[in-house]
């Protein structure tokens, strides 16, 4: 798997969100937000990686609408938690 269509941006996105989520002051003052950022970090990593692999022709997303629906639903549920 190449994973490099956008120069591995999924890693930078995840790392940046985790850095904010695990900042001691954020964890202490904004506990719920820190948790959501942590969950989003992993979810966005996975979504972007799957898009990357599909667009790089390493794998494919068989149903674009279904993939989009599942990805958005996963993110929505995280916001509601």
Nearest-integer average pLDDT? 93
Q: Name the structural class.
A: mainly alpha
Number of helices: 4
Q: Write down the Rg.
A: 14 Å
Summary keywords:
flat, mainly alpha, 81 residues
Structure description:
Helices cover 75% and strands 0% of the residues. It has 81 residues and is mainly α. The chain has one domain (9-80). The longest helix is centred in the middle third of the chain and has 25 residues, at 31-55. It is flat and about 45 Å long. The termini are far apart. The model has no long low-confidence stretch (mean pLDDT 93).
Q: What secondary-structure arrangement, pairings included, does this model have?
A:
Layout (H helix, E strand, L loop, with lengths): L8 H13 L2 H6 L1 H25 L8 H17 L1
Task: Write a brief caption for the model.
This protein is mostly helical and 81 residues long. It is 75% helix and 0% strand.
